[in-house]
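Weekly sync, protein design subgroup
Attendees: M.S., D.O., the rotation student, P.L. (late)

Item 1: inverse folding check
M.S. brought a backbone from last month's batch and wanted to see whether the design step gives back something sensible before we order anything. D.O. pointed out we never logged the input encoding, so this time it goes straight into the notes. Structure tokens as presented (223 positions):
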């Protein structure tokens, strides 16, 4: 006699979401719950550490920037020590791990995805599945973004943010404690990498800011 499987007893993969933006956190939880994951959420490192011990997740989705204190990636690394088989999906507004300045800190089997590419529920589920299966091809695809900003370093993106705030090269140099000449050289490299330098009909500064805003939105003085 074949006994039907009790669906209420079926095994579910568990995922812990660590994200300080409440709206994004709730949206991710809703999407993954609908995809039949068992989901727990945390807004900071303290909550995440407690939840991890109680929940024992198969995967962690973590925003690399969680405000003051340890970064999301530092949290992920500490959890990975406790559970070596843990799948890590790092998310950020930065286009790539390199532009976020964390490429050398990412575990080999971790995945990175830019939040702006998660435009459908399926995209988030696909990214999580790639991290869970350690699919090398899928992980590489997740980290190859089309944005021109993916060519920039974290320092260059920070300078571009200041440009988007309307700061002059002199103001940027003062804020960074460097010379105006060095900032001018850096800005020239940024414009060249973004492909906005050689068209005399357009203002390179304006065009670069447009590209920045497409990924990060319009910046404010506080963040």
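Designed sequence read out in the meeting:
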């Amino acid at each position: 006699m074949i006994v039907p499987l009790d669906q209420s007893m079926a095994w579910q993969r568990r995922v812990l979401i660590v994200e300080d933006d409440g709206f994004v956190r709730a949206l991710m939880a809703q999407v993954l719950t609908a995809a039949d994951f068992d989901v727990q959420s945390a807004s900071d490192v303290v909550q995440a550490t407690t939840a991890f011990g109680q929940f024992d997740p198969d995967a962690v989705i973590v925003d690399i920037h969680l405000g003051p204190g340890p970064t999301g990636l530092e949290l992920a690394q500490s959890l990975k020590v406790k559970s070596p088989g843990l799948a890590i999906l790092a998310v950020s507004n930065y286009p790539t791990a390199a532009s976020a300045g964390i490429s050398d800190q990412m575990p080999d089997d971790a995945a990175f995805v830019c939040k702006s590419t998660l435009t459908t529920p399926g995209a988030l589920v696909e990214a999580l599945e790639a991290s869970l299966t350690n699919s090398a091809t899928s992980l590489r695809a997740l980290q190859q973004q089309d944005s021109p900003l993916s060519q920039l370093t974290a320092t260059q993106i920070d300078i571009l943010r200041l440009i988007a705030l309307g700061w002059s090269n002199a103001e940027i140099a003062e804020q960074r404690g460097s010379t105006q000449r060095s900032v001018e050289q850096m800005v020239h490299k940024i414009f060249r990498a973004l492909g906005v330098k050689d068209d005399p009909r357009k203002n390179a500064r304006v065009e670069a800011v447009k590209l920045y805003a497409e990924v990060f939105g319009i910046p404010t003085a506080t963040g």
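Discussion: The first helix runs from residue 22 to 34. The first strand starts at residue 14 and ends at 18.
Action: P.L. to compare against the previous round before Friday.
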